[in-house]
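Record filed below.
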Amino acid sequence: MQSKRIALSQYCFLLVMCILFTSKAVPIDKDKTKITEEPQVEKEKKESSDTGLYYDRYLREVIDVLETDKHFREKLQTADLDDIKSGKLAGELDLVSHQVRTKLDELKRQEVARLRMLLKAKMDSTEDNGINHMNLLKQFEHLNHNNPDTFETTDLDMLIKTATSDLENYDKERHDEFKRYEMLKEHERREYLKTLDEEKRKQEEEKYEEMKKKHSDHPKINHPGSKDQLKEVWEEADGLDPNDFDPKTFFRLHDSNGDGFLDEQELEALFTKELEKVYDPKNEEDDMVEMEEERLRMREHVLNEVDVNHDRLVTLEEFLKATEKREFLEPDSWETLDQQQLFTEEELKAYESHIAQQEYELSKKAEELQRQREDLQRQHDQLQAQKQELHQHMEQKKLQQGTPLSGPAGELKFQPPGEHAVGQVEGQPARGDQPLPPGHIAELQAAPGAQQTQTLP
């Protein structure tokens, strides 16, 4: 599937899914003079990126199939973003070829089967029987669960709207996750201090303050998207004379795939030099998780300032207009994370209370599992005792009936007739206390050398 970075001239679906294809990785700058032209198919494969959605594969495969239809592709070229996001474009699905519809039907059936399998595994893990898949499928809003067999207009409409909404909230979820990460760090630090005596606690507090001070002692951070910040990239990353800085040339240099946009990946790559001033993976005081949060905030700030139509892409026109603003030439100072209060004491206490509740629930669950284990062990021991008692009872019954005893594995405790004969020849009593069965006497008398054996009464 093509990502949002595919050239607009070839795939206008970029306007449809401009929000859909974000990536966590930052591309490495390349010397464009040394790049050789690659086959288009290979380029598309390399530029594919995971959206992070749990239905990412289904989304990609649907778009792949739709782009094979000439009529639908032509409609995409003339559609605007509002038509797409409102679901108007989904109505064009009725005009695609039968072959495309058949492939879409198969993709939907596969997706429904995958979701059912996941739901069954989840229910099995919680020991919940009587699963109603149709009711559970309602929680998945990226497809029409009322019709699990065919891909209809409703399915395309739901897929576009759900993916757009999910990815619009993706940054917020990342911020919330980072905040929880920072609160957990502080919680664990405070819990560790409680285990120390007064002297060691004082030493640990001093070390903590020293590390904070060391981390905050870094060169000036240029405001993201300002002229000073871009000129620094122009000089240090591009190797060009800062006096020759030209916004149009800068845009084309950093539009790494040449599609006419600076997307989120390309924007985040611009902040690497600034982030290296603050974060170094070799330093104990520098947290790389915080660095990625800093990068995300920088990218969000630039998009808010430059991205006029809020499609999460920066065009050349938008970029050039931004360079004419006063904020581009005289930006405010940029506050890094170490200069901000990431959470309040009230928020930390609420988070610690939440952790305590989770620990309590896990403890109760562990106790219940231990109790179940002990019950199972008792049942196992009781069954073993009953089995042993039954075995002894059967052995006693065999003795009373004159039946040969059996060993632990059920084998009879007497030897075959030939071995009894050998025992008799050597003058030794036959093995076992039981007499030979009727009919064996005649066989012994008829055998060669029977005259040498002891005469039986």
